[in-house]
Amino acid sequence: MPKELTPRKEINLNNPNFYNNRELSWLAFNERVLEEAIDERNPLLERLKFLAIFSSNLDEFFMVRVAGLKDQVKAGFNRPENKAGLTPKQQLKEISAVNHRLVKLQDSVFTETLLPMLYHEGFQFLNVSELDATQLDYLNKRFQHYIYPVLTPMAIDAYRPFPMLLNKSLNLAVLLKNEESKTNQLAIVQVPSVLNRVINLPSSTKKETFIMLEDVISYFIGELFLGYEVVSVSPFRITRNADMTIHEEGARDLLREIEKELKKRKWGAAVRLEIQEGTMHPTILNLLLDVLEVHKGDVYSLKGPLDLSFLFKFYKQLAHENEHLANETLIPQPPADLIGEENIFVAIRKRDIFLHHPYESFQPVVDFIAQAADDPNVLAIKQTLYRVSGDSPIIQALERAAENGKQVTVLVELKARFDEENNIQWAKKLEKAGVHVIYGITSLKTHSKITLVVRHEQNEIQRFVHLGTGNYNDSTAKLYTDMGLLTANQKMGIDATNFFNYLSGYREKPEWHHLSTAPFEIRDSFLRLIDQEIACQKKYGNGRIIAKMNSLTDKPIILKLYEASITGVKIDLIVRGICCLRPGIKNVSENIRVRSIVDRFLEHSRIFYFHHNGENKVYLSSADWMTRNMEKRIEILFPILSPPIKKRIKEILNLTLLDNTKAREQTKKGTYHYVKKKEGEAFIQSQLTFYEEALKHAETFDE
């Protein structure tokens, strides 16, 4: 009989000590992003980019998660959350402590580590006090002709109240002294986001020299307030609540309802105030705290520039001519399953096609839709769109298909957070081209990634389906790791047809041949699969689960994983971001390992493997193991039926588990540390290995 761990009867699996709080776990993920800016193995410009990612991530966290907790406190909601048992107030207190530590670390990494490294490489940021006469003259001309005309000083007095400042805008608080009355007055000047934040300066040295736009405006600010003495100039930045409340039930037109809410997003309640250390007069700080209704704990003081997301543009500016300071560009290769194939429909009819992005190109997915748009034998194209690129070739192909007289149906998810405005524009554009656009089902986000092409072949209808773990976005497909399947499997095609009819019409959820969908059904499928693995462990002693996802928060699934661990099932979880499960707890989760990989590509694929006594069940999905994916979204879980593809995905999972370069392991206390390389073991960086394999396939064919 296989050995089974016997749980102590007194163990309560609802014990809060067995769980990580969702928000604190996310902050632990963002700390791993910050570690990449600290990691000396990364090239200098890549380290700067990770600082920008950290800043951008934190903005969204405050706008949505912190804002939501503050709303709960304001509403008097004080019930503990159902895993780690923290009330909203307790969560905000712990979030504040962690964030102040991380922001201080981020600030010191930039000012004390990376700026000196940039200087060593021939790049320097200067303050106005460090400029020579030539540089000052250059800035004076630039200010007068290029910056000054864009600026708008906003005085604050009895007739002109404190202005409603845009979310995430960078502003200057200017304390002025009236030369006649000798009284102090306040004005606000917004740093224009339409101008480049980093200004190149002429230099008499070999170093490329830069200055920040806000420093230039601060130096010449007196030009805006003639007749006043400038006492102080203080950069500050506000982050506001940007979560939207959409009353779908009563909405006659969802698109118009969202357009109205988008206008409100810019003016939500302030949730964070960032200031520059040593520049802000106490009077101004107290006024900002009062007007914005933020607490002192919501104030973040930095030595360096506010909002390091400007480093995204700076990275691009420098990387082009300084390749030695950035990662080598990895050009996506032709997918191994499509090498030598000329017609994508012919290739799919032969066998299922597996795509591994970004190591393998996303172009075949674009080609799949583009060829369908122009193929006279294609009758219909149906697709879900969650996030697409700014100049999407997929949108262009769908428009062309409609113009060519094909039946084109597209579900555009209008509620994709921070992409709502973009998606509204695409929806309108597609409708004008004759595409039948639908917005999904009330109160649910459609997060599924599926395309159906219906083609007339040899007097019969043939259905071709693409299913994926990531969005139909050709831009992010170069940056995110994802997987896709192209298939002509008849039952999968019937499922796809029923899925789109379910979304566009009035009908009950159909019975599926192969697919499983959310809400609720996917969770039931996973619970059943884990139960089957528990049964295999009890009978054969070989229970094994490997699951890869972005985040894990769903308590019913976590409880079932704990149950499997107690039974002896060996479980490896590869979770990039939030993980509310704690591994390694004696008699609870000691058979579970949790690892996270943060590397040059954002880990985004959702893969689920169950050994099932050698049957090797493999599934891909658009869904993470999060409660929102299980209950509040329309998602798809689909099986991999092809044995060669199953084998390949299992090898991908195994290699990911061998990563000892960019992988971190979670401890039983919920903290993370880099995986330690064993003595004599070679360095394995899974992302680079996957690219090398894709390159090898392409080169083998060329030979």
Automatic annotation (TrEMBL):
Q: Does the keyword DNA repair apply?
A: no
Cofactor requirements of the protein: Mg(2+)
Q: Which Gene3D superfamilies match?
A: Endonuclease Chain A, Polyphosphate kinase middle domain, Polyphosphate kinase N-terminal domain
Ranges for domain Polyphosphate kinase middle: 135-314
Choose any GO biological process term that the UniProt entry carries and state it.
polyphosphate biosynthetic process
Catalytic residues (UniProt) = 447
Question: Which one of the record's GO molecular function terms can you name?
Answer: ATP binding
PTM annotation: An intermediate of this reaction is the autophosphorylated ppk in which a phosphate is covalently linked to a histidine residue through a N-P bond.
Task: List residues of the Polyphosphate kinase C-terminal domain.
Answer: 343-508, 515-687
- Provide the Gene Ontology terms for cellular component: polyphosphate kinase complex
Domain of life, per UniProt, equals: Bacteria
Query: Which reactions appear under catalytic activity for this entry?
Result: [phosphate](n) + ATP = [phosphate](n+1) + ADP
Q: Where is the Polyphosphate kinase N-terminal domain?
A: 19-125
Query: InterPro entries, alphabetically?
Result: PP_kinase, PP_kinase_C_1, PP_kinase_middle, PP_kinase_middle_dom_sf, PPK_C_dom2, PPK_N_dom, PPK_N_dom_sf
EC no. given is 2.7.4.1
Residues annotated as binding Mg(2+): 387, 417
Q: What class of enzyme is it?
A: transferase
Keywords in alphabetical order: ATP-binding, Kinase, Magnesium, Metal-binding, Nucleotide-binding, Phosphoprotein, Transferase
Q: Does the keyword Plastid apply?
A: no
Specify which residues bind ATP according to the UniProt entry for this protein: 57, 480, 576, 604
Function comment = Catalyzes the reversible transfer of the terminal phosphate of ATP to form a long-chain polyphosphate (polyP).
Cited PANTHER family: POLYPHOSPHATE KINASE
Q: Which family does it belong to?
A: Belongs to the polyphosphate kinase 1 (PPK1) family.
The name under which this protein is listed is Polyphosphate kinase
**Which organism is this entry from?**
Alkalihalophilus marmarensis DSM 21297
Gene responsible for this protein: ppk
